[in-house]
Amino acid sequence: MRNKKIFMGLLFIAILAFSAVFIQLNMDVNSRAEKGEDDDADNHERIEKLLNKMTLEEKNRTAYDGRFQGTEKSDEITELIEQKHIGGVIYFDRNMKSPKQVARLSNSLQQTANQSAHSLPLMVAIDQEGGDIIRMKERVSPLPAQQDLGKNASIEDMYKVARLNGTELGSMGININFALY
């Protein structure tokens, strides 16, 4: 049982590390595609170089950090991004006042991450499921609870709710929602 927990933990860390790398690569690929460049051959090399530059400790730290307390970028979170190379943050009620403030915070944290040694974008996460589980409460669309959607909504309606939620969260710089959609 203990070995299974260790294995699952390491697997989770590896998935997060590779997710961070692929988010950066996807941004670069999209940028190059807009310029008409095709660099499939270069991607493998970039991944290898980036992973080879990272220590095991850095790869392990690409997980999320939920200790972030403020509504603005602090010295503590800046150090975690620049020195510890965390891969993401999880927003809670304590981090959010308004969509505009959250967007500024997300942009500020992403700018710090992009200027750090590995220049990988952060995974910015939230648990915005609807119903009783709503972290961002101000000036966002009220969402039904997941259970209510599952019982009463059509697939099309579920899609519309998920799309609305994703659009609103994306406008605040949040790129991962732990909701069950």
UniProtKB/TrEMBL annotation:
- Its name, as the record gives it, is beta-N-acetylhexosaminidase
Domain Glycoside hydrolase family 3 N-terminal: residue ranges: 72-179
* Top enzyme category: hydrolase
Report the domain of life of the source organism: Bacteria
Catalytic reactions of this protein: Hydrolysis of terminal non-reducing N-acetyl-D-hexosamine residues in N-acetyl-beta-D-hexosaminides
| Keywords from the UniProt entry | Glycosidase, Hydrolase
Q: Name one Pfam family in it.
A: Glyco_hydro_3
Task: Name the Gene Ontology molecular function terms of this record.
Answer: beta-N-acetylhexosaminidase activity
Please list the GO biological process terms of this entry: carbohydrate metabolic process; peptidoglycan turnover
Under Enzyme Commission nomenclature, its number is 3.2.1.52
Instruction: Name the family the entry cites.
Output: Belongs to the glycosyl hydrolase 3 family.
